[in-house]
C-alpha cells in the first residue's frame, strides 16, 4: 500500500552515484548507509581536508565495527570502503544523481551550498536536504530547479533509527518525491511524507520534550531526577542523554527554530545554550550512562 501522499513508484529515478555535502557526524553516518545499502559510489565533501578526513576516519571505524560484529563480510566491508571517497573538489559531484546536504543548520549556509552545487550537477540530479527543522522551500528559494529539491531527514543514530521524514515543498515534483521514497526504502527505512512546517513531525515533538526538560532544570529540579523520572514512561533514553546524542548545538538550534516559529508554544532555554558551549556538559559512567551534569556545566549554570 502506498504511504499517504506518495506518488507512483514508476516515476522513481535510478540513483547510481550519491554526493554527500558535509562530513560531520550525521553526514558521515548516512554516507556509510548509502554505500552499504545502495552499493553505489558515495562522495563526501566538506570545507577543508581535515574535516573530510575526520568524517572518513569515522566511517572507516564504523565499517571495521560492522565487520568485527559479522554484520558485513570481509568482502562486503572492502567493497563498502572502496565505494566511499572523500574530496574537497565539488566538481566531482558532476555525475551524482542524488546530492544530499547536511551542513550547518543555518538557512543562508544551506542556500549558499546549493547555489554552488546546482550549476555543477546534471539537470536531472535530485537535491536533498537533511535539515532538521528549517523550511525546505526556503532552502531552495534560489534554485533554478526547485522541483528537484526534497527534504530527507534522518535520525540519530542513523544506522538504527528506522524512520526518514520526506519533506515535500509546493515545488517538489512527483519524480523527485518518488525517488526519495524509493531511496528511503532501499536504505531499509520507512518513510513518511510530512508538510514543510518547522520541525516537521518528529522534532516538533522532541523539541517539546527537550525544552521542557531544560525548563525543569531552570526551575531547580536536578538533572538526574529529570532523566530518571522519564525512564519509566517508556522513553528509550532520558531527554538529556538524547540531547547529548543529537549534539547540544544541534538541539539548541532546533529549539531556536521552534521558539522562533511558535513563540507561545516552545520554551527558550538559556541553559540549553550555555550547555551547548561546554565541551562535555554531562558526566557519565564508564558504561556511558548519564550520571549528572559535569562540574563545568554546574559551574556555568551556577547550580
Ligand atoms: N551509532 C551506531 N550504532 C549505534 C549507536 C550509534 N550511536 N548507538 C547504538 N547503536 C547500535 C548498537 O551498536 C546496537 O547494534 P547491534 O545490535 O549491532 O549491537 C544497536 O544500536 C542497539 O544498541 P544498544 O544495545 O545500545 O541498544 P539500546 O537499547 O540502548 O538503544 C538506541 C540505543 C537505539 C539509541 C535507543 O536508546 C534509542 O532509540 N534512543 C532514542 C534515539 C532517538 O530518539 N533519536 C532521534 C533523535 S532526533 C534526531 O536525530 C533528529 C535531528 O534532526 C535532531
From TrEMBL:
The name this protein goes by in its record: 3-hydroxyacyl-CoA dehydrogenase/enoyl-CoA hydratase/carnithine racemase
Recorded family membership: In the central section; belongs to the 3-hydroxyacyl-CoA dehydrogenase family.
Q: Where is the 3-hydroxyacyl-CoA dehydrogenase NAD binding domain?
A: 17-196
Q: Which organism is it from?
A: Leucobacter exalbidus
3-hydroxyacyl-CoA dehydrogenase C-terminal domain residues are 199-286
Q: What does the record give as the organism's lineage?
A: Bacteria, Bacillati, Actinomycetota, Actinomycetes, Micrococcales
Q: Which region of the full protein is contained in this chain?
A: 328 to 630 of 711
Amino acid at each position: 500500500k502506498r504511504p499517504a501522499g506518495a506518488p507512483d513508484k514508476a516515476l522513481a529515478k535510478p540513483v547510481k552515484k550519491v554526493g554527500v555535502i558535509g562530513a560531520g557526524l550525521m553526514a558521515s553516518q548516512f554516507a556509510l548507509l548509502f554505500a552499504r545499502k545502495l552499493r553505489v559510489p558515495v562522495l563526501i565533501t566538506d570545507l577543508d581536508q581535515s574535516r573530510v578526513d575526520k568524517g572518513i576516519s569515522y566511517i572507516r571505524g564504523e565499517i571495521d565495527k560492522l565487520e568485527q560484529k559479522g554484520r558485513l563480510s570481509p568482502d562486503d566491508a572492502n567493497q563498502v570502503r572502496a565505494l566511499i571517497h572523500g574530496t574537497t573538489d565539488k566538481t566531482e559531484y558532476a555525475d551524482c544523481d542524488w546530492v544530499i546536504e547536511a551542513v550547518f543548520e543555518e538557512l543562508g549556509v544551506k542556500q549558499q551550498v546549493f547555489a554552488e552545487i546546482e550549476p555543477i550537477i546534471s539537470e536531472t540530479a535530485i537535491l536533498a536536504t537533511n535539515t532538521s527543522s528549517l523550511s525546505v522551500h526556503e532552502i531552495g528559494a534560489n534554485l533554478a530547479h526547485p522541483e528537484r529539491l526534497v527534504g530527507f531527514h534522518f535520525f540519530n543514530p542513523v544506522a538504527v533509527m528506522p524512520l526518514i521524514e520526506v519533506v515535500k515543498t509546493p515545488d517538489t515534483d512527483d519524480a523527485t518525491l518518488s525517488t526519495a521514497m524509493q531511496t528511503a526504502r532501499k536504505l531499509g527505512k520507512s518513510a513518511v511524507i510530512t508538510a514543510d512546517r518547522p520541525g516537521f513531525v518528529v522534532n516538533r515533538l522532541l523539541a517539546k520534550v527537550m525544552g521542557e526538560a531544560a525548563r525543569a532544570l531552570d526551575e531547580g529540579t536536578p538533572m538526574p531526577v529529570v532523566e530518571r523520572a522519564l525512564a519509566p514512561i517508556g522513553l528509550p533514553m532520558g531527554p538529556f542523554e538524547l540531547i547529548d546524542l543529537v549534539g547540544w548545538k544541534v538541539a539548541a538550534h532546533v529549539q531556536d527554530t521552534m521558539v522562533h516559529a511558535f513563540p507561545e508554544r516552545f520554551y527558550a532555554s538559556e541553559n540549553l545554550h550555555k550547555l551547548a558551549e561546554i565541551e562535555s556538559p554531562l558526566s557519565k559512567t564508564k558504561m556511558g550512562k548519564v550520571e549528572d551534569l559535569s562540574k563545568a556545566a554546574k559551574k556555568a549554570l551556577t547550580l
